């Protein structure tokens, strides 16, 4: 129950982003059942937005699968960061935690680690499942109401996902109060992301920026 309660502050973000995702998926031509399956099986906001965009522009199946795969590779990094706190659990329980881990639940879990120095399995399940069911409901709500919204960009819904991440980033920076370090890490991520995106691809740029910037931040923290 404490995991459920700790998830409540993120629910508004899930509702707004999930609602926007449902609308965009509907306008891309997906059925209610397809949107439901997408939110149940993929369960990744950025991937679902990109999926809907590529479907609406006639993207190839291979291209869609590859893009979604690279976009979701960040979950490997998030899972690796939390895995030391669940080493005592079985592989099945670890898998149950991992498949429902999102950017937002990772952020809440990171805050819990900073506060108490540990994570509890039942707390994590409460956190993850609350976010999961809320996301599915928000997607379906957007899908049902999406028939009356034919132009999501008119209402700024295409910016819903970046807006949420910006909000999470600002809150994290304010909580950490390590402004110089965060600025250096942020500039590093931007530089690497832009360079890789220009010369290789945007998907690779996201992963490269994450790895390089996180490494730079870790090195600076250990030297200080």
UniProtKB/TrEMBL annotation:
<dbReference type="InterPro" id="IPR011606">
    <property type="entry name" value="Brnchd-chn_aa_trnsp_permease"/>
</dbReference>
<feature type="transmembrane region" description="Helical">
    <location>
        <begin position="180"/>
        <end position="200"/>
    </location>
</feature>
<comment type="similarity">
    <text>Belongs to the AzlC family.</text>
</comment>
<keyword id="KW-0813">Transport</keyword>
<feature type="transmembrane region" description="Helical">
    <location>
        <begin position="12"/>
        <end position="43"/>
    </location>
</feature>
<feature type="transmembrane region" description="Helical">
    <location>
        <begin position="206"/>
        <end position="223"/>
    </location>
</feature>
<feature type="transmembrane region" description="Helical">
    <location>
        <begin position="155"/>
        <end position="173"/>
    </location>
</feature>
<dbReference type="GO" id="GO:1903785">
    <property type="term" value="P:L-valine transmembrane transport"/>
</dbReference>
<keyword id="KW-1133">Transmembrane helix</keyword>
<keyword id="KW-0472">Membrane</keyword>
<dbReference type="Pfam" id="PF03591">
    <property type="entry name" value="AzlC"/>
</dbReference>
<keyword id="KW-0812">Transmembrane</keyword>
<protein>
    <submittedName>
        <fullName>Branched-chain amino acid ABC transporter permease</fullName>
    </submittedName>
</protein>
<feature type="transmembrane region" description="Helical">
    <location>
        <begin position="49"/>
        <end position="73"/>
    </location>
</feature>
<keyword id="KW-1003">Cell membrane</keyword>
<dbReference type="GO" id="GO:0005886">
    <property type="term" value="C:plasma membrane"/>
</dbReference>
<feature type="transmembrane region" description="Helical">
    <location>
        <begin position="129"/>
        <end position="149"/>
    </location>
</feature>
């Amino acid at each position: 129950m404490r995991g459920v309660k700790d998830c409540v502050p993120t629910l508004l973000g899930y509702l707004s982003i999930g609602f926007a995702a449902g609308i965009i998926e509907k306008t891309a031509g997906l059925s209610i059942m397809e949107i439901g399956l997408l939110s149940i099986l993929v369960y990744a906001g950025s991937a679902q937005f990109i999926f809907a965009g590529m479907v609406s522009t006639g993207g190839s199946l291979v291209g869609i699968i590859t893009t979604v795969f690279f976009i979701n590779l960040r979950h490997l990094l998030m899972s690796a960061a939390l895995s030391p706190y669940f080493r005592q659990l079985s592989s099945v329980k670890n898998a149950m935690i991992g498949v429902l881990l999102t950017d937002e639940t990772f952020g809440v879990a990171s805050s819990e680690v900073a506060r108490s120095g540990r994570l509890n399995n039942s707390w994590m399940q409460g956190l993850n499942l609350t976010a999961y069911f809320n996301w599915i409901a928000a997607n379906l709500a957007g899908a049902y109401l999406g028939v009356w919204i034919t132009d999501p960009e008119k209402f700024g819904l295409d910016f819903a996902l970046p807006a949420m991440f910006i909000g999470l980033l600002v809150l994290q920076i304010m909580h950490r109060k390590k402004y110089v370090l965060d600025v250096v890490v942020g500039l590093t991520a931007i530089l690497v992301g832009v360079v890789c995106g220009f010369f290789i691809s945007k998907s690779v740029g996201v992963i490269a920026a994450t790895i390089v910037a996180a490494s730079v931040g870790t090195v600076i923290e250990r030297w200080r």
